[in-house]
Amino acid sequence: MEIKILASFLPHTDPEESLKFYRDILGFEVRTDVGYGGMRWITVGPPGQPDTGIVLCPPFADPGITEDERRTIGEMMAKGTYATVVLQTDDIDGLFERLQATDAEVIQEPVDQPYGVRDCAFRDPAGNHIRINQAS
């Protein structure tokens, strides 16, 4: 039996800004862009990896979310503590330069970590924490 990761979900606050970040800056492919009730779910993924995607989704689409939960989620997104994704590249310094040349918010410049990776971190337009690793 094989189990694969199909998709992970990250909230977005502005679908167009998220598209600019994931498609235009990171170079991800847009796999689907589905609208419903004034909301959009956009699946993106790295070229050459058609079975893996990130679904950029409205953070409050679940009708079971209470007003207190909406407020808490909004506060956590604003601080960048609600959602995280870790990506991997073979050229961390080149990717960092490309991201830094945009208006992406830098959290951490590339650094060699004691656990064997070189990594950096950014926030996407919704405040999600994006860590990027390069194996040492």
UniProtKB/TrEMBL annotation:
Domain VOC: from-to ranges: 2-135
Q: Which InterPro entries does the record associate with it?
A: Glyas_Bleomycin-R_OHBP_Dase, Glyas_Fos-R_dOase_dom, VOC_core
Pfam families, per the entry: Glyoxalase
Signal peptide bounds: none
Give the protein name, as stated in the record.
Glyoxalase superfamily protein PhnB
Source organism of the structure:
Kribbella pratensis
